[in-house]
Design brief:
With 402 residues, the chain is of the alpha/beta class. It has two domains: 2-147, 2-Layer Sandwich (Nucleotidyltransferase, domain 5), CATH 3.30.420; 197-384, ATPase, nucleotide binding domain (Nucleotidyltransferase, domain 5, 2-Layer Sandwich), CATH 3.30.420.40. It is built from 15 helices and 14 strands. It is globular.
Length: 402
């Protein structure tokens, strides 16, 4: 079964074509600048040269059409015909409380996704546009929606309800939802597999650390708590997001600097985090380089980030009554030797001890804890596309059997 995985952003579209009999990637690509001058697709079929195709794409439908044309191109494509695509898996950011798992896409499912637009105004609209475009261009091909929020729907009420008037939850759905669920699910399952243990017997803390970052407590294979909230703004300081701050800061800034809601929202979402602290960049690689060169604000940004991750690890260990496994994933988690070292420093009392030699690794699936350490610590590159493809295969297969 060949499955096409689609991840639509506001002006970009990532895709992968996978052979799910072997779980091998057949082709991978990215379309950029949809609706903007200079649009192009970067495509690679495994075993062939990478190609860059510059072509105007005024809409997501045109972008998906170009992707499909590229996949069947005789010179650099991966398949001979679109009939070789058996199903499409779509990443959807927000499913609210409506979806506790992935779903075969129907008109009812799309309507429920539209109801969540207020909760994810930047993400759900392009996700839906991508689905509609695929339906039009690939009629009859089964499609599945895989929701970033679904994995966290196992959180208990005491974990997701905010201490606000309860009516706000009932009327507007104001609660913690969490994000990066597909990534947290993938790496926790992979960690259990690497340990040859049932995930239901483990207490796992997964750290998805990149420009967007979140930490999740996974007990008995289920999300117990996660650092992101109603929106991806809550939790850790990130590339440009503030993470947890005193909420009164919002009204304080509006009053003292005569700012609108949109202006404050822009500050805490786009100008804060490690960018705001360092004044250097939102990219941790640039900040690490500046810190090594003696930039004190860059070093402060790193110190704050490491401290916050450490705090979440400690609090989630307390929430679960212990921890058996710690996982680092995503861009920074997979590639920053120094960040993993600093985050784990001082956590020896709770059994987290990493081996400096084992930790000297980037982007590789491996154990980095010391022999005999109570907590097994892993680096596991995330693979959200494979997780989406697996869910798609499972659901489509069940529906075909019916």
């Amino acid at each position: 079964m060949n499955i096409l995985v689609i991840n639509c952003g506001s002006s970009s579209l990532k895709y992968q074509l996978l052979d799910m009999e072997t779980e091998n990637v057949l082709a991978i690509g990215l379309t950029e600048r949809i609706g903007i001058e200079g649009s192009r697709v970067k495509h690679e079929t495994v075993g062939k040269e990478k190609v860059v195709i510059e072509q105007p794409m005024e809409s997501h439908k045109e972008a998906i059409q170009l992707v499909l044309d590229t996949l069947v191109n005789p010179e650099y494509g991966a398949i001979a015909s679109l009939e070789e695509i058996d199903a499409v898996g779509h990443r959807v950011v927000h499913g609210g409380e409506k979806f506790a798992g992935s779903e075969v896409i129907t008109e009812e499912v799309i309507a429920a996704m539209e109801e969540c637009i207020d909760l994810a105004p930047l993400h759900n609209p392009p996700n839906i546009i991508g689905i509609r475009a695929c339906q039009e261009l690939m009629p009859g091909v089964p499609m599945v929606g895989v929701f970033d929020t679904a994995f966290h729907q196992t959180m208990p009420a005491y974990s997701y309800i905010y201490p606000l008037p309860y009516e706000l939850y009932e009327e507007l759905g104001v609660r913690k939802y969490g994000f990066h669920g597909t990534s947290h699910k993938y790496v926790s399952l992979k960690a259990a597999e690497m340990m040859n243990q049932d995930i239901k017997d483990l207490k796992i803390i997964t750290c998805h650390l990149g420009n967007g970052a979140s930490v999740t407590a996974i007990k008995d294979g289920k999300s117990l708590d996660t650092s992101m909230g109603l929106t991806p703004l809550e939790g850790l300081a990130m590339g440009t997001r503030s993470g947890n701050i005193d909420p009164a800061i919002v009204t304080f800034l509006m009053d003292k600097k005569n700012l609108s809601i949109d202006e404050v929202n822009h500050i805490i979402n786009k100008e804060s985090g490690v960018l705001g602290i360092s004044g250097v960049s939102s990219d941790f690689r640039d900040i690490e380089e500046a810190a090594e060169a003696g930039n004190e604000r860059a070093q402060l940004a790193l110190d704050i980030f490491h401290y916050l991750v450490k705090k979440f690890i400690g609090s989630y260990a307390a929430a679960m009554g212990g921890v058996d496994v710690l996982v680092f994933t995503a861009g920074l988690g997979e590639n920053s030797v120094s960040s993993r070292e600093e985050i784990c420093k001082g956590l020896e009392f709770m059994g987290i001890e990493i081996d400096p030699e084992r930790n000297n690794v980037r982007g590789k699936e491996t154990l980095i804890s010391k022999d005999g350490a109570k907590v097994k610590t892993f680096v596991i590159p995330t693979n959200e596309e494979l997780m989406i493809a697996r869910d798609t295969k499972s659901l489509v297969s069940k529906n075909l059997i019916k």
